[in-house]
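To the wet lab folks,

You asked to see what we're planning to order before we commit. Fair enough. Below is the target structure as tokens, and below that is the sequence we designed to fit it. If anything looks off to you, flag it before the synthesis order goes out.
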């Protein structure tokens, strides 16, 4: 499957992507606000096992983010914790290639993946959490149509300190106008 957006495309992740993921895992600036799985060292073998299983989990949908210009893998995004009963899931994104930060990639990808979640997967609610210190991500989510719901006080631990997480969401009834 391939989803297109301006200058980029989303594709399935593959085991050949392990080198990029391993490189990103070694860069604390890249992983600072990301999933807790990056809190612990990972070998290439660990990453390979994860990539081999990623497309077989019905509760998660993951896409590699690639540049049309050079087909380079820039990061990944998707929906985790998909509940068919509640028609909900949680959005995630990691832009691993820092040269693409601040260029609107996060907003564009967020819109496309959220649209896929609502229109293709039939989800009613897509939520996310972001570190309150990750100003760029919060702005990208706002620009993509997500609304603030609240703050989860001291629910993250980074650089030896507890930090708040912002809870945001979008509903299918709000998305139909996008």
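Sequence we intend to order:
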């Amino acid at each position: 499957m391939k989803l297109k957006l301006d200058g980029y495309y989303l594709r399935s992740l593959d085991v050949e992507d392990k080198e990029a993921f391993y490189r990103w895992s070694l860069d604390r600036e890249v992983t600072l606000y990301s999933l807790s799985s990056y809190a612990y060292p990972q070998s290439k073998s660990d990453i390979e096992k994860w990539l081999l299983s990623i497309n077989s989990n019905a509760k998660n949908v993951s896409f590699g983010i690639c540049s049309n210009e050079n087909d380079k893998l820039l990061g990944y995004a998707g929906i985790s914790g998909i509940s068919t009963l509640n028609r909900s899931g949680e959005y995630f994104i990691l832009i691993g290639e820092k040269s693409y930060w601040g260029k609107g990639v996060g907003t564009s990808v967020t819109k496309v993946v959220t649209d896929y979640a609502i229109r293709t997967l039939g989800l009613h609610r897509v939520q996310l959490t972001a570190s309150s210190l990750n100003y760029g991500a919060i702005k990208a989510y706002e620009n993509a149509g997500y609304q603030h719901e609240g703050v989860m006080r001291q629910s993250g631990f980074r650089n030896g300190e507890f930090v708040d997480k912002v809870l945001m969401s979008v509903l299918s009834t709000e998305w139909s106008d996008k």
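Structural context that might help your review: The helical segments are 18-25, 28-31, 44-54, 105-120, 135-143, 172-175. The mean pLDDT is 90.

Thanks,
Computational group
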